[in-house]
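Duplicate of #3305? Posting structure anyway:
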């Protein structure tokens, strides 16, 4: 009977020990499972916080950019106007250079020259209206203009200082053997009469130059001076071209 009782007690102790062992193992496993769940939850929280931080930073940056765009005024973009094609002005393309003053140059009426001649008086009271020896000249200034100073040498020498407009050389006769060219001119200036009473008057002049050769030019001109009274003279001469 004692043995039977002892076996029952041993069986009960074995069952209790087994139950305790399984309970301890289950509790340990449950504890490890709870620990793993807590770790996963913490990782999820951290990732969520990181994502929230990134999203918040992105939203802040976007709001700052939008605010900057609202603050900064943007100039309106004006449509580009298409200009019509410009046609160059022919007058600008074919500009004639301004005439330059070059004393002694040739004009369109011929070369410059200096020479001698004689004056034939046609009426008046000064040397212009008397017969006298003359020194003549033509000094080209531009292609169109020249100065033609001259001196009528007599008892009371008269100096003629006209500025003339020279016209192009023109042919007055062409026989096929000989051609005569003339270059007309017209101008005005001053006439200075010397002597006891030096007097300055207005002068009108006009005439023609006749090229004789590359070296010589003949001249014939009429001078009208307004000094004491109207004086008229015919001046003839030959000049050496330079």
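Output from current build:
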């Amino acid at each position: 009977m004692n043995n039977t009782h002892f076996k029952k007690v041993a069986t009960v102790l074995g069952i209790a020990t087994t139950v305790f062992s399984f309970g301890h193992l289950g509790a340990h496993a449950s504890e490890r499972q709870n620990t793993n769940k807590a770790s996963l939850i913490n990782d999820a929280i951290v990732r969520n916080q990181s994502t929230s931080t990134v999203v918040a930073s992105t939203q802040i940056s976007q709001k700052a950019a939008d605010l900057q765009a609202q603050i900064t005024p943007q100039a309106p973009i004006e449509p580009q106007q298409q200009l019509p094609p410009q046609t160059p002005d022919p007058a600008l393309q074919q500009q004639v250079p301004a005439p330059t003053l070059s004393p002694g140059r040739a004009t369109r009426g011929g070369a410059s020259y200096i020479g001698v001649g004689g004056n034939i008086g046609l009426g008046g009271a000064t040397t212009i209206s008397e017969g006298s020896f003359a020194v003549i000249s033509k000094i080209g200034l531009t292609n169109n203009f020249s100065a033609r100073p001259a001196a009528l040498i007599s008892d009371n020498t008269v100096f003629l200082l006209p500025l003339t407009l020279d016209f192009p050389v023109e042919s007055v006769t062409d026989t096929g053997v000989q051609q005569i060219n003339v270059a007309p001119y017209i101008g005005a200036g001053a006439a200075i009469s010397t002597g006891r009473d030096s007097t300055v008057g207005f002068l009108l002049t006009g005439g023609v130059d006749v090229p004789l050769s590359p070296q010589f030019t003949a001249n014939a001109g009429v001078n009208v001076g307004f000094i004491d009274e109207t004086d008229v003279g015919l001046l003839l001469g030959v000049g050496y071209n330079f």
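Confirmed duplicate; merging threads. Strands lie at 113-123, 132-140, 145-147, 150-153, 158-166, 170-174, 179-193, 199-211, 216-226, 230-241. Residues 2-71 form the longest helix (70 residues).
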